Each structure stands twice: as C-alpha cells, then as structure tokens.
Amino acid sequence: MKIQYLEIVTNNVDSVCASYAKAIGAQFSAGEERLGNARLAKLDDGALVGVRAPLSSDEGPVVRPYWLVDDIEAAVKEVVEAGGEIAHPPLEIPGFGTFAIYLQGGNNHGLWQL
C-alpha cells in the first residue's frame, strides 16, 4: 500500500510547512485552490503532502492519509463492508485524481485513485 496524499489540516499552516521543510527538506508551493488552498510538497516517490487551514468553523485539525487504490468505487464498497462510514463520496479533482473520505475507528482516512 502507498499513501498518495497526506493531508494536514492545521490552524498554523506556515509553522507546519516550515517544520516539514526543515525535517525532511520538503519544498512547499503556494496554495492549490483545487485542494482547499493546501500548500503542496511533492515527495521523491510522487506522493504529495498538503497542508491547509480548516475550510469551515466546524472543521478541526486532522492528519488524513489517502491510500492509493486502483478502483475507488470497489475500495469504497470494501470500506463500507468492513464497517467504515463514508464521509465524502468519490469526487474527481481535475489534474489530481479522484478521492473519497471515510471514518473508521475514530479516525479519518482517505482513498485516492489516479
């Protein structure tokens, strides 16, 4: 399994980006509107780290890994069969792929199809 996108929602985007830049040498872009204005860093294996502020007053800080899958519809079905709750159904983001978010075990998780 591979994490395609690691989403970090924080109230202090600049601080988090600075610490990742220092710790692992990640170089973050300006905000990407299609990903909630997340600042992006591309890792050597092609995965992305996105750091963004909450999109609404009821969204709290979270770190959400998005697992790379070949077939997001099949993966969503398997998640539901395993007891997961779909928080956001599959949605395509042009130029990035299709994502879905699910809740399980008290944690946020994501799926990503290129």
TrEMBL record:
SUPFAM superfamilies: Glyoxalase/Bleomycin resistance protein/Dihydroxybiphenyl dioxygenase (SSF54593). Residues 2-114 form the VOC domain. This is Hydroxylase. Gene3D superfamilies: 2,3-Dihydroxybiphenyl 1,2-Dioxygenase, domain 1.
